[in-house]
Design brief:
By secondary structure, the protein is of the alpha+beta class. The longest helix has about 40 residues.
């Protein structure tokens, strides 16, 4: 005997909600999107044309697709036809992949994603899943949706641009000395502008036209040959100058796209070439990508940002500004690894935003080892006499203060150093171990502000409470990237351009949050 099976009979229930499990992730997606204020969707409203799909429904579908590791518009469209949770969220609608993709790259999508993170954090606070005592910051590099071999390097562009300027200036001086063209008023120091090159090309074309007219009005064969030979050089010059104009415009455009970066991809101008951890060829190949920064608590992503620079040091301050302006007020403790430890970052956190930085620095772990503490050649172990302002080296020689030195980095941050020099290194038995200088005395650069900041960090991390917070970092923020890449399968951006990539990674990180939240609750 079999259970009744009839394909021609209407089967109840028609409401798909009862087919979902009690704690299905679709319910969490629905609840989250419904908490977003109506004002956030006002910009999607249109008063003409065919009525659009409701943006709440579209956002729910895209979020649900990302939680199922469906990152392309066609895969999300397919899920609306065969996934019960997607059918319930869509309530019978089946938007095409073009509609899904247009909605995903909409400029106002950034506001909706930001609202998702704000409302999700409020939900965590209400349920006491986070205590708002600290945020844990870390970054990872994710490959951009760009060709790996269409790269543009800043050094190469600058080299070719300089050579073009030299060649064009040389040609201009040659034409000026031979009185072929009149002097042109210079607007830029050391180089000819595009307008000046156009003017030179027009003057040369006039010279060529004069030769052409002269050839047409003479019947002497020898003279015509002579005029053609004379016309050949300015014709070649016209061709060369026209080529320079195109190249100069291209170089200037490339430099404008590059900005402060060292490279970019031709298929995604916002992506920068950087080294990835996933180096399958083991040859250190550079790939176009973005540096994704996240702030977490309780293994939930609370804020995110993407940056073009591969190192984390220069991303901390702008990322903290983004968190304060767009997401939430910063908690008391800012926790991150040694990649963020710098004088500028410590100064910003301590003096500008009045928070506690729990950031280690480059040699913090080495300084805790016995070998480092007993090494007589480590300058941090040298004896210092504050009254005389001198250091004592391992050979009992004094290093006297000489002068103050100021250094300015690329970002414009200024650091102050004190320069000390040994009184006499002649015949020192430790010379080869102590310094690489062959003849000069040993010098020592001391940054007092940096040393005070390091002492402050060591003191904070020696306290039980703050040390516990710092040790929590590796089990709080780093697993999020593992969930993102290994579990969700998000290892490469689907969209091109920084603004669209922000939408892409925001949806993926929120999908990770929802999956974790659904399991925990």
């Amino acid at each position: 005997m079999f259970k009744d099976y009839n394909m021609n009979q209407l089967v109840l229930p028609l409401d798909l909600e009862v087919k979902l499990q009690e704690n299905d992730i679709a319910f969490h997606i629905h609840h989250l999107v419904e908490t977003i204020p109506d004002e956030a969707f006002a910009s999607f409203l249109r008063h003409s044309g065919c009525p659009a799909y409701h943006p709440r429904m579209m956002l729910k579908l895209i979020l649900c697709g990302y939680t199922q590791s469906a990152f392309s518009g066609r895969k999300i469209e397919a899920l609306t036809k065969d996934s019960i949770r997607m059918m319930w969220l869509a309530q019978g609608y089946e938007p095409s992949y073009r509609t899904i993709n247009r909605f995903r790259i909409h400029p106002e999508m950034k506001t909706l994603i930001r609202q998702c993170f704000i409302q999700f954090r409020c939900q965590l606070v209400e349920e006491r899943l986070i205590d708002q005592e600290a945020i844990f910051i870390d970054g990872t590099k994710i490959e951009a949706n760009a060709n790996k071999f269409t790269f543009v390097w800043k050094k190469a562009i600058e080299k070719h641009h300089r050579r073009l300027i030299e060649q064009s200036n040389q040609l201009y001086n040659e034409l000026l000395n031979n009185k072929i063209i009149p002097e042109i008023a210079s607007e830029q120091d050391g180089q000819l502008s595009n307008e000046q090159l156009h003017e030179i090309a027009e003057k040369l074309e006039e010279v060529v036209e004069d030769y052409t007219q002269a050839i047409a009005h003479t019947e002497d064969v020898a003279e015509r040959k002579q005029l053609r030979r004379q016309r050949k050089t300015p014709k070649q010059m016209v061709k060369q100058v026209r080529e320079w104009i195109g190249r100069k415009q291209k170089y200037e455009k490339d430099l404008d796209i590059l900005g402060a970066r060292n490279s970019y991809s031709k298929t995604d101008h916002d992506a920068t070439f950087m080294r990835m951890k996933d180096d399958y060829m083991k040859n250190g190949q550079l790939k176009p990508g973005y540096n994704v920064q996240i702030a977490t608590e309780g293994q939930y992503t609370l804020a995110y940002g993407i940056f073009p620079n591969p190192t984390d040091t220069k991303t901390l301050i702008p990322f903290l500004h983004t968190i304060e302006e767009e997401y939430f007020e910063l908690p008391q403790h800012i926790v991150a690894d040694a990649g963020y430890g710098s004088e500028q970052n410590y100064d910003h956190i301590l003096t500008k935003i009045n928070r506690t930085p729990l950031l280690t620095y480059a040699h913090y772990l080495n300084e805790q080892k016995r070998r480092f503490k007993t090494d007589p050649f480590q300058t941090s172990n040298w004896e210092y006499d504050a009254e005389q302002d001198v250091y004592l080296c391992p050979n009992e020689k004094k290093l006297w203060f000489q002068r103050k030195v100021t250094r300015r980095d690329r970002s414009g941050f200024t650091r102050q150093f004190k320069l000390y020099e040994c009184e006499d290194c002649t015949g020192c038995p430790f010379r080869s171990t102590c310094t690489k200088a062959q003849e000069a005395n040993r010098t020592l650069m001391i940054n007092e502000t940096w040393e005070q900041q390091k002492a402050y960090v060591r003191e904070k991390l020696s306290e039980d409470k703050t040390n516990k917070l710092y040790r929590q970092r590796k089990i709080d923020v780093e697993p999020v990237f593992a969930f993102l890449k290994a579990n969700l399968g998000f290892t490469r951006f689907m969209l091109r351009g920084k603004s669209k990539a922000e939408h892409d990674i925001g949806l993926a990180l929120m999908a990770v949050n929802l999956r974790k939240y659904a399991v925990r609750t």
